[in-house]
Amino acid sequence: MVLAVLREERALTVCSVPGRVEPLVPVRDGEAFSLDTALGKALRGPVRGGAVLDREDVVAGVCCAALPVRSPAGAVVGAVAAMVGAGQRLEVVAGRVAEAACAVTRALARSGVEVGP
Fold first, then answer.
1. Bridge partners of residue 3, in order along the sequence
2. Is the peptide bond before 46 cis (omega within 30 degrees of 0)?
3. Which of 39, 44, 86, 105 is most deeply buried (CB count within 10 A of its CB)?
4. Using an 8 Å Cβ cutoff, are 45 and 68 in contact?
């Protein structure tokens, strides 16, 4: 699972938990991803109708689901994504990513801190 923000036209990882695809896609805090990835597309928003899905579009053998994190004002301020091996049920992964993105969005709203893009 990855939490990223938009920085200098890249998706910058600010918090990550490595998973099974680590050998194919290293996930580390401070890693940057292209905006052509599902994570980058979710950061650019707006995303309507569910998660941005990548079915081995960027890396062979790796699929990704990503959703934006929003500020209390509704602006996209980050994105959450999960990468899994090909053949896994990406729709289930997308559901978990949606739960995580909603949780972060709610936490921002409760904090009362204004966050800008």
1. 15, 80
2. yes
3. 39
4. yes
62 token code pair = 């790796």
Return the residue matching tokens 């904090």. Answer: 111
Q: Of 9, 21, 15, 16, which is closest to residue 56 (Cα–Cα)?
A: 21
Query: What CA–CA distances, in Å, run from 93 to 53, 66, 75?
Result: 10, 9, 24
Q: How far apart are alpha carbons 27 and 83 in whole angstroms?
A: 10
Q: pTM of the predicted model, to two decimals?
A: 0.86
pLDDT tens-digit map of 19-53: 666 656 667 788 888 899 999 999 987 667 789 99
Nearest-CA neighbor of 63 among 75, 51, 71?
A: 51
